[in-house]
Structures are given as structure tokens and as C-alpha cells.
Amino acid sequence: MKKIFLSLLLISTCSHLLFSQEVNTAKLDSFFNALDRNNRAMGSFAISRKGKVVYQRSIGYASLEEQNKILASNVSQYRIGSITKVFTSVLIFQLIEQGKITLDTKLSKFFPQFPNAENITIENLLSHTSGLADYVNDPKDQIWITNPHTKAELLDVVAKGKIHFEPGKGMSYCNSGFLLLGYILEEITGQSYAKLIEKRISAKIGLKHTFSSKINNSGALEARPYAIAEPWKSVKDLYFPNIIGVGDILSTPTDMLTFINALTEGKLVSTNSFDLMKRFKSPGNTGMGLFGVPFNEKLGIGHSGGTRGTFSFLVKMEADDLAYAGCINGANFMPNDVTIAALVISYNQPYKIPVFLTAAELEPFLGNYSSAQHNLKISITQKSATLIGQATGQSPFVLSAIDKNKFEFMQSGISVEFNKEKQQMIFKQGGKTSLFEKEKPQ
């Protein structure tokens, strides 16, 4: 099962970024046209500059149901996964500002039956330092969360789960913390989480397409999730009432931009509260509801979200007043790479539109490669129509085609060129070039 949280963007391609006043919308169109034409993604995307939306694009379908085939549009609503946590954090800080709770308030005030409840604070829950079991990702049975469960059942899984560490003694991404924060919000205010989103956020800043607590596929505008197949295949997603306050919100990219811009402009919480939300600590540039998003020498703020079938990203580069939001309900291209491309193009940096090859066209490149210059070997495999590289003892990396025989892994500055006739691979990284020979099958 896909975790509700996705790794945040990390990229290093240019030594210095200067922001142009104009976003290159033509090149953005070329990029999304390539994804659409080659059936590599379905979803909606938007970019704002100085608080104004300057680019919107939707590709593919919001629904492929036989009796309900609907093209994706600017009003298609997507499950934004863990970006929901930013909304939850905003609500918590609003209550802190009203004096109804503090960062030092103990979990025992609301859930005394939980392990370490006397020592776990609201700050621990917000900053993923509670040490509590993660009720979404820890259970071995990853199907149970796709079926309905009562509040008591959900809390029981958290309470009986294995503690990761003592409160404040470590950091581990924890969906359970935000489940509890959602319930705490409801107990303090006497209102449902959905009502709090509507009253304290949506109505306040004019979000017209953002809602919580809706059962899966119950809205006419809700995009259905799909996995790549021949053709796209419907996905059974998480049962969203199980993850209210954690990852259930429905929204659109333009609403998400309105939200992040309002947050940075002080329209939702005070400057002090916002500064606490983005008080980033290692590992992972973790804040209280927000994460730091490194992009070359800059550090943006934001969050990503992933369910079993949708992938979303929200980031704002505060220094340049540039924000990006994207929601994908069908992915046959790395969702993180979509965000990278959108930001690189928005900064008018060089970017080569990917060339998409078929599985058959990739087959001649597959195999193990070794070099007289190095002790390591590099294996080249494929998943569907995507080429995967992996050096000895290292993590795999996705190679995006930029020509019929040229590929790159932009995040690490890797470029690869194959020579099918000579059975060779030229590997470049960090200004160094290495020649690898394809090994003959044993």
C-alpha cells in the first residue's frame, strides 16, 4: 500500500536560480502534452505567482467508468492525502491562539488510555515525535484500512501498536498523531472536523471545492483513482472516513494554491504560529504540519500526499512568491518528477521534455554493466515501460528518456547513453564520464 506521505522533493540541477517574471506556460504545455499523449499521467495542475494563478492544466480523465466517463478539468476534486495534515495543523494553531489548548497540553487530557499519554504533547503529535504506532502503515495487513472501521476500532489499533520510541526521543512519520489531533479538535469545539474545515478555512478564504469527511467516490466531481494497466485499472483506495484529519480531504490544485498563499499571508494563523509550523528539524526538514522542500539552493515549504490511488504535491517557494499544486489520479510516470519538471520549467531552467519509449524499445538496454574504472556494477531493468538503474549496494533510480538511447536521472545529475551495437553504456555524473560494458549472460 502506498503510504499517505510521499517523499518530498529533492533536486540539485543548477548552482543558482534566478526567477523570471514570466512562467514558461508554453513549455509547461509541452510537458503535460507529452504525459497526456503517451498515457503517462492523469490529473490536474496549477501554478501561482504573487498570489495569482498563472497556469492551470488538466489531462486524462477524472472518471473512466463506462457509464460515467468524465474528462479531468479545473473543478475535478482529488483526494490530497497527507496535505490534509496541513489543514489539521492550521486548525490546531487557531485553537492555540484562542487559548483553548497549548503545544504543551498532554495527550492524557483527551486519551489517558494511550501508552505514554502523560508525556506526549500536542507538539509531539504535530511534529511526528510522539513515538506512537502508525495505524495506517504499521499493520502487516494493509488491506484493513480500505474497509470501514469505527472510531473505537481505529483508536484500539493505535493504543495496542508497538511504540517506536519515547516521546521526543526520535522522529518517525506518524499518521496516528493526526488522527488523534482530529478527534481532539472535535472534542474541544464540539463540531465535526468537516464543519471546522468549512467554517474556519474554506469559508474564510473562499475555497469552493475543498471538503472533508466524504465517503469514497460519493461526489460528482470526485476523481476516481486508477493504476497503470492496459488500459487504466480502477483502484480500491483507502476508506476515507478512516483517515479524517489525516489524509481524506477533497480539493483542487487551485484551491490548494489559495490555501497555501493565504497561510503564508497570515490570513489563517498568526505570524508566530506560521513560524512554528515551519520550524524545521532533522531528519527530513520536519515542522509542525509543514515540511521544508529543498529545491537547489532554495528551501520551499509544503507537503505531499499519497493514497493507494492518488498522488498530490503542494509547495510554495516563499522567496519568489511562486507556488505549485498538482493532483494525479493515474500515474505511469514518477509523481515527484512531475513536480520537479513543473518547478524547473517555472524557473525557466533548461529542461528536456521526456521521450517515452515502449517496453519493446527498452529491452535491448537491459542487463548488467561493469567498468574497468570502477569496482561497482550497474544493473538496468525495466518496470512496464520505465527503465530502472541500480548500482551495487545502492538504491534504484528511474531513468527518464530524453532521446531514443539517452536517459537521465535529474535529481542526482545522472545521464546515461547506450550503444546497442557495441553493447556499451556511457555513464555521466558530476562532470565525470565512465564507460561500462554489458556483461554476457551466464
Automatic annotation (TrEMBL):
InterPro entries assigned to the protein according to its UniProt record, in alphabetical order: AmpC-like (IPR050491), Beta-lactam-related (IPR001466), Beta-lactam/transpept-like (IPR012338)
Keyword set includes Nucleus: no
SUPFAM superfamilies according to UniProt: beta-lactamase/transpeptidase-like
UniProt KW DNA repair keyword: no
Domain Beta-lactamase-related residue range list: 38-338
UniProt signal peptide: 1-20
Keyword terms of this UniProt record: Signal
Lineage top rank: taxon: Bacteria
Name the UniProt record assigns to this protein: CubicO group peptidase, beta-lactamase class C family
Lineage: Bacteria, Pseudomonadati, Bacteroidota, Sphingobacteriia, Sphingobacteriales
